[in-house]
Design brief:
Layout: E1 2-3, H1 6-19, H2 24-43, E2 48-52, H3 56-70, E3 75-80, H4 88-98, E4 103-107, E5 121-125, H5 139-150, E6 153-157, E7 180-184, H6 197-200, E8 202-206, H7 212-217, E9 222-225, H8 227-233, E10 248-252, H9 259-270, E11 276-281, H10 286-292, E12 297-300, E13 318-321, H11 329-341, E14 346-348, H12 351-357, E15 371-372, H13 376-383, H14 389-403, E16 406-409, E17 415-417, E18 423-426, H15 438-451, H16 456-478, H17 485-490, H18 492-497
Parallel strand pairs: 2-3, 2-5, 3-4, 5-6, 6-7, 7-8, 9-18, 10-11, 10-13, 11-12, 13-14, 14-15, 15-16
Antiparallel strand pairs: 1-9, 16-17, 17-18
Helix pairs in contact: 2-3, 3-4, 9-15, 12-13, 15-16
Length: about 500
Amino acid sequence: MKFFYTAQVKELDAYTIEHEPICSIDLMERAACALTAAVLERYHGCHFAVFAGPGNNGGDGLAVARMLAAEGHSVAVWMINPKGKLSPDCAVNLERLKNTTVSVVEVKDVFSMPVLDKDTVIIDALFGSGLNKHVSGSVFADVINGINTLGCRVVAVDMPSGLLGEDNHPLEGIVVSATDTLTLHFPKLSLLMPENAPFVGDISILDIGLSQEWIERESSPLHFTDEKEIKALLRPRTKHAHKGNFGRALLVAGSRGMAGASVLASRAALRSGVGLLTVHVPACNNPIVQVAVPEAMTSIDSNDCCFSDQVDSSKYNAVAVGPGLGQCKESEEALYNLIKNSSAPLVLDADALNILSRHKEWLSLLPKGSLLTPHPGEAERLFGKFADRYATICAVRGIARKYSIVVLLKGAYTTIVAPDGNLYFNSTGNPGMATGGSGDVLTGIVLALRAQGYNSVDATRIAAYIHGLAGDLAVAEIGETALVAGDIVNYLPKAWLSFREGGLR
């Protein structure tokens, strides 16, 4: 799913109104219907308190209040309007609401937080994605502070009020801490940043029927990878296919005491369709890999404990290096030789990234299209320390462009930074996957897809999605606390099977 910066979303709204055609008040009514349905799906039978601002986000909230009341729910509304001026559609919805039995308290300059039962659900409709400065020192700040101190569940309309659509650094104002954010038609970039997670809660994207013509025509570097897009990328296997059609992959992984990393990555690669897999391991790990992963071939390093040999990567369609590798001098030299002599893109993970962070000049030696898969700590060592994830992504875009590499930044909403500046945010995964070995599994999936001929960007997009989906399927049966990396591998077949015609059976 392509999504847009907030300035573009305003253009989309205007285009939809003009070309559907539809009156702006009717488009607001459509959005309110979607919002109300989503609220009632989560909180049916509750008392609701709506805090509405003077703009169109407030108009959405007022329309939701009216619809909740029509469904028989108890609703109270506070209309925050210090300047005494409402947007035209907000004014219409305020008049419509006054014709109902809903209590409306209009607040201009002094706000005293009402006493609300803890079971009350607050609807935050103060500001939407059009906010252009942080909230502080105003009646709005008093309202937001009051909402945050009540301890009630909070549903944010489009965005938590006080949060800007993109860059929020430095966060100098106050932001609503929402339980749920019901964002309209697209995610907003700031909703996907980890630093904003305390404000956002659970995100749901509500389709409100904005112009598909405009969406398809307008360019944007922002993408939210969903099931539909992954289905379009996957290639079917032909009836007469053989193992040679699905690539030869080399995995350089493991050191003394770290055989598990090579096992996990190997199993993930094999469960992701690679035709032939060779694992280059130190001699001490060969018996372990041979027993744990009999489907893989091994290439045995001359060093008993670590990666030290020059490996011939020319006979492989894809090469990955790093899981459990260690960072000794011998491995450092061997990695340099692999980078320098490889003509095909490499997949670098874990200790390969840690070694690279000490030799950043090697970035210029990486074959074009190479893939780096850092977690936050590795990213900091590689690219530097930045104020937040947003700043990190901005910096990494420049690095990816400069060296023609793909960078997969791990985390919630794993972000793939392409050399052309496009950003792909992943939509699958869960906190249970924050466990040792999970990254090794992801490396194996990426390696398998690269070996099968997927380009670097598509391979990382598919891998991140399938990795997260397998984790989601595992959590549904195991739970977050008990999840281990091996479970992700075990659920990969089910994840891939979900893309079969008809889905899971």
